[in-house]
Amino acid sequence: MAAKCYINIVSSLLLFLSILVHVNGDRLHPRSFDVIKYGAVGNGRTDSTRAFLRAWEDACAYNGRSRVRVPQGTFLLGSVSFEGPCHGSMTFLIKGTLRAPTDPSKFFTDTWIGFRYLSNLTVKGGGYLDGQGAAAWRYNDCNKNPGCKPLPATLRFDFVRNSKVQYLRSINSKNSHINIFACYNMDISYIRLSAPANSPNTDGIRIGSSSRIKISRAVISTGDDCISMVSGSQNIDISDVSCGPGHGISVGSLGRSHQHEYVTGISVRNCTFIGSDNGVRIKTWAPSLYSLASNITFEDIAMISVHNPIVIDQQYCPLAQCLEGDSAVQIENVIFNNIWGVSSTQVAVKIQCSGALPCKNIKIININLAYKGRGGRAKALCSHVLGSSYGKQIPAGCL
């Protein structure tokens, strides 16, 4: 009798466990939504935009973990926005190549591939995003044409939280490769972004109005900033990034708009710059609206033939005609620590702060930047800056 009761109890437990596994199986294994099954064609010519959207809509509506899968092949994809909120965590798995349109009637927009209003999103897969930027760069004339039309960022994340971007390659973006706006707690790693050095405004990663963004183990070669952090960027951690060609890793430009969205809590470390126009840089417009950039650290940085390794520029204006006046952006609590290598211009350290609001508490620690060209040794130039220097100072410190 006892043995029979024991067998019944065990059988009931096994039945209960099988039901539990069946009910919760989707939590263990995400359901896959393959774009091919929705009509996508990987021949590089057939527009697969609608198929991608249908796959996303079904995956987003699924009550559990889901995955949109892009297999091997080349998929022509128009401007598209994948939006939430979704019923479960989402993975967008790219194994193949996504190719952007070259018809101007299809690319005058600010987004090629967008993700909006999402949480717990992962975009990964080892695939390629081909922006086909050469078809659009000639239209990038906003510096001289106030009526210029927008060009799309390859990947745009708006209002995305607790998400990851990993193991992707983006080539020849029409505008920025990755644009991050109003996002929180994102981890971007193991990516490679590339565009020719003369391609206009092809920033690698552009961050604004976002916090707790981590970027690591990235190789970025572009025609603009490898990474730029504009108004509202807070608690940004950047490490193990190779930059070049490009315009360096920049805070700013600041002060032209969004005056109350300050930049603070920036860490850039263990990075290498190779042949870039700038290394580590803070830039603000002059004249400008009031703003603040504070608590910024650049440390353990290698410079290999970099034009301007260390820069604070509070007279920034890339336009053909610039107004006179001082910047009203306060820069304070900035550390440049353990930066070494070779400058390809004689002025290796250039800190030009605002006459109206001098930089405060700038620390230059253990700098060793050589210059091997004509005109003598490397130089450091500073103006309107309050701070101090410690340790080795090559070129001789101006603080």
UniProtKB/TrEMBL annotation:
Subcellular location: Secreted, Cell wall
One GO biological process term: carbohydrate metabolic process
Matching SMART domains: PbH1
Top-level lineage group: Eukaryota
InterPro entries hit by this protein: Glyco_hydro_28, PbH1, Pectin_lyas_fold, Pectin_lyase_fold/virulence
Keywords assigned by UniProt, alphabetized: Cell wall, Cell wall biogenesis/degradation, Glycosidase, Hydrolase, Secreted, Signal
First-listed, main subcellular location of the protein, grouped into a coarse class: secreted
Molecular-function annotations in GO: polygalacturonase activity
Protein's UniProt name: Exopolygalacturonase
